[in-house]
Amino acid sequence: EPWDIGEGGYQVGNFPAQWSEWNGRYRDTVRDFWRGQEQTLAEFAYRFTGSSDLYESTGRRPHASINFVTCHDGFPLRDLVSYNEKHNEANGEENRDGESHNRSWNCGVEGETDDPEIIGLRNKQQRNFLTTLFLSQGVPMLLSGDELGRTQGGNNNAYCHDDPILWIDWDNVDRDLLKFTQTLIDLRRRHPILRRRKWFEGTSVRGTNLTDIGWFRPSGDEMSDEDWRVSFARALGVFLNGDGIASSDVRGERVLDDSFYILFNAHHGPLEFRLPKVLNTAPWHTVVSTAAGPIPDVGRFMAGDQLQVPSRSITVLQRFREESQSRKRSLQSMPAPKLP
To answer: What is the distance between the alpha carbons of residues 199 and 57, in angstroms, rounded to a whole number?
Structure first.
């Protein structure tokens, strides 16, 4: 936890080699991105890929970044999407204690509500935060109870309580959120591309015309330097190349994995995304949709196809390596066209 009060107390990124740090920049950037703040896209990309701008210069690897959205201080995840202001009256300090700048968004109503539209948006925002966390390079840190929908009733400084404000209510567990979180954990566990040991380099992968990572606009075109500077941009496609992990396993063999195309839409409305034409070696399958709840809509897409990503949501597409290799072999075995 690389910060303390007083001048020079904030030391995120300044620890030496072999140290891992709670990444407060990750927390702040991810919160700002999903509440629709401007000028967040470029920094969001750094945080999502392990924060090389903070840790690479000291010789550290992506695991130096302990990524988190919430922790023991501040709002739990459900309150992060339900309250704009702290509500610490029960602490006995007239609501003067605790952080006042929480980078939270209540989705339209402060606190509890029975409005189904707001409840649905809050549920989706929780899934957005969890999906971002578990698909980011680095080490994910999950606050106990966030996977269950735990609330502190808007209290963001509840350390002084040993009562229902701080306890987990096991009789009111959000089963859908728990199942969704388990799906994300399993996805991360099974795929080394989501937990690389080395930094992405943006270089071409041997035997392919693709780089180890690719950044794309919703149109399917590659991001330009100017695109990263567009203040209102809140959408991005990220290609993670399973053939470009650049690591070996315990037997010294090259680590290979499926590839992923992750579509982020933090806009208030739906967006049409076109799959980049360079990603043309095999079909892409929908494996996660934060808009669809615990079970994503089944979808199958090819390069050049369009798909709609709902407002404030993530769609995760997976290209199975077996299908990609099979398609390559099929193309290679096709007879050459006869000349007239």
So the answer is: 12
Answer yes or no: are the C-beta atoms of 135 and 316 closer than 8 Å: yes
End-to-end CA distance of the chain: 71
Q: Within 13 Å of residue 68, how many CA atoms lie on the same side as its CB? A: 21
pLDDT at 325: 57
CA distance 158 to 2: 21
Whole-number pLDDT of residue 296: 61
Residue 330 has a pLDDT of 45
Residue carrying the six token digits 């690897």? 61
Contact 65, 20 (CB under 8 A): yes
- Which positions of the chain have pLDDT values less than 50? 328-334, 336-340
Question: Given this model, what pLDDT does residue 297 score?
Answer: 59
> For position 9, what pLDDT does the model report?
77
Place of tokens 């992405």: 200
d(Cα 260, Cα 113) in Å, to the nearest integer? 36
Walk me through the domains of the chain, giving residue ranges and CATH numbers. Answer: 21-190 (3.20.20.80), 200-329 (2.60.40.1180)
Nearest to 83 by CA among 122, 26, 140, 53: 122
The two counts, helices (H) then strands (E), for the chain are: 8, 11
CB neighbours of 314 closer than 8 A, spacing ≥ 6? Answer: 127, 128, 131, 132, 262, 263, 264, 265, 288, 289, 290
- What pLDDT does residue 205 have? 86
Helices (H), the chain: 24-34, 41-48, 52-55, 77-80, 116-135, 175-190, 225-228, 321-333
Give the amino acid at 107: C
CA distance 296 to 60: 36
SS3 call for 85: coil
